[in-house]
UniProtKB/TrEMBL annotation:
Keywords: Membrane, Transmembrane, Transmembrane helix. The lineage of its organism: Bacteria, Bacillati, Bacillota, Bacilli, Lactobacillales. The chain crosses the membrane at residues 7-23, 35-51, 58-75, 81-101, 215-238, 271-290, 296-312, 324-346, 358-376, 388-418, 442-464. It comes from the Bacteria. Belongs to the SLC13A/DASS transporter (TC 2.A.47) family. DIT1 subfamily. It comes from Lactiplantibacillus daowaiensis. Its main location: membrane. Pfam families: Na_sulph_symp. It is a multi-pass membrane protein. This is DASS family sodium-coupled anion symporter. It is found in: Membrane.
Length: 471
């Protein structure tokens, strides 16, 4: 049986690819023919990732094959590209996420926080926010955190408290907690380098332009805007989208009951917790002792395999991890080659000269806001990052924005722009379809929180990065 292919979705990629190829400069310029041809293939590949005639892994493989047939890459270069450390780090962190869910540690942490801080609704929101924050350190999949751990717990808790969309009582408690989880998940995705696979995609692309940022550098820059957001957003939502139930004394009893049901910590949970703590320590200090972030993720996964918390069968079932390993390796290989061939330096120099005389802070603000609101056009985090991040970063550098600052600010934006639409990412698609929050409320609240995020992460982020000496 032959699978159906959406042939119409190839039309736009072909138009962009062939069109740009035909526009190759004929006269000698600062950009050579090979660089321009690769740019045409790169753009066509990214457009195909958006129109999706085939899954991203397939479209990127087609793109790199065309680049090989046209002589831009050798097969040795292509195969070497699959050894990209950033792509492997993302995959390894996905396997760690599987360990969290399989061992049950994530749910236990959530129940404990609800038991300790769940007396009042606002306190319960902060408790659940803290759970997502802890999980984000080691689970780079916002889908895994929301779909696999947080939503089932919030849904069960809301129904236990008498808040059920099927009965028309969702505004009692569930609506507030569900939307709070959505926005908090966006915050925690940006707070840690390992909070979202897209973060590592962005910094991998930044690395191809000569910018290297560690786990600790990321956290240092994101800590203040991230913590401020975690404090402000639940309170803001409590005021503009208040739950009908303000006191939740039964939440503690519910959590205690759940903890009794799952019993004492299993050996798997204890190993997962120990491995998680070790990974955090090594991410913080590893650079000082010669262990980089990718190596830390390998160490963690090996420990989980040796101890039986994960099996090779579990790893093989993590299709998203293997999928992202392939397409991310290809995208980063193309990006790196564009840098080697001189395309990005030429691109940043050309656009930077057009912005000559404009203050670089203003340029960064414009780029940040444009990058944020362009997400209304993208139903995928990684697709937008793959399509726009490298180009936006080149423009910022060409306009004189300090390199590390530009890379971090645009990468942060790649997390908070998830607060835009019901289709912004997997968690939004899931939570917006549960019936707890109406479509009208979702758009309205997302717009309000989006403005708040820009004030905190752009305004506050610039001030904080000045304090820590990034500019």
């Amino acid at each position: 049986m032959i699978n159906k292919i959406n042939w119409k979705a190839f039309i736009l990629p072909l138009i962009f690819g062939i069109g740009l190829w035909l526009l190759t400069p004929l006269k000698p310029t600062d950009i050579n023919t090979a660089a321009w041809h690769l740019f045409a293939i790169f753009v066509a590949t990214i457009v195909a990732c958006i129109t999706k005639p085939l899954p991203m892994m397939a479209t990127t493989l087609i793109g790199i094959t065309i680049a090989t047939l046209t002589g831009i890459f050798t097969m040795d270069e292509v195969t070497a590209g699959f050894g990209n450390s950033t792509a492997w780090m993302v995959a390894m962190c996905m396997f760690m996420a599987a360990g969290f869910i399989k061992s049950g540690l994530g749910k236990r942490i959530a129940y404990l926080f609800v038991k300790l801080f769940g007396k009042r609704t606002l306190g319960l929101a902060y408790a659940l926010s803290a759970v997502d924050t802890v999980l984000a350190i080691g689970i780079p999949s916002n889908n895994a955190r929301v779909n696999g751990i947080m939503y089932p717990i919030i849904d069960n808790l809301a129904r236990e408290m008498g808040s059920d969309p099927k009965k028309g009582t969702q505004r009692k408690l569930g609506s507030f907690l569900i939307f709070n989880e959505y926005e908090v998940n966006n915050i925690t995705s940006g707070l840690f380098l390992t909070g979202l696979a897209g973060n590592m995609v962005a910094l991998g692309l930044a690395k191809t332009q000569g910018i290297t940022i560690s786990w600790l550098q990321w956290f240092a820059a994101a800590s203040v805007p991230g913590i401020l957001s975690l404090l402000i957003i639940p309170f803001l939502l409590y005021k503009i989208y208040p739950p009908e139930v303000k006191e939740t004394p039964n939440a503690r009893t519910w959590a205690d009951k759940r903890l009794n049901e799952i019993g004492k910590m299993t050996i798997s949970e204890k190993i997962m917790l120990t491995t998680f703590i070790l990974a955090i320590i090594l991410w913080l200090v590893g650079a000082k002792i010669g262990i980089d972030a990718t190596e830390v993720s390998f160490i963690a996964v090996v420990i989980l395999l040796i101890t039986g918390v994960l099996t090779t069968k579990d790893m093989l079932h993590e299709s998203f991890a293997w999928n992202i390993l392939v397409w991310l390796s290809v995208i980063m290989l193309m990006s790196q080659k564009l840098m080697i061939l001189g395309f990005f330096p030429w691109f940043s120099k050309t656009l930077g000269s057009m912005l000559h005389g404009m203050n670089w802070v203003l340029v960064l603000i414009i780029l940040f806001l444009a990058y944020f609101y362009l997400h209304y056009m993208f139903p995928s985090v990684s697709t937008q990052i793959s399509a726009l991040y490298a180009g936006f970063l080149s423009v910022a550098i060409g306009a004189g924005v300090p390199h590390t600052l530009a890379a971090l600010m645009l990468a942060f934006c790649g997390s908070i722009y998830l607060s835009t639409t019901p289709y912004s990412a997997g968690p939004a698609a899931l939570l917006s379809g549960t019936g707890y929050v109406s479509n009208k409320d979702w758009w309205k609240l997302s717009a309000i929180v989006g403005v708040t995020f820009n004030i905190i992460w752009l305004g506050g982020g610039l001030l904080w990065t000045k304090v820590i000496g990034l500019w």
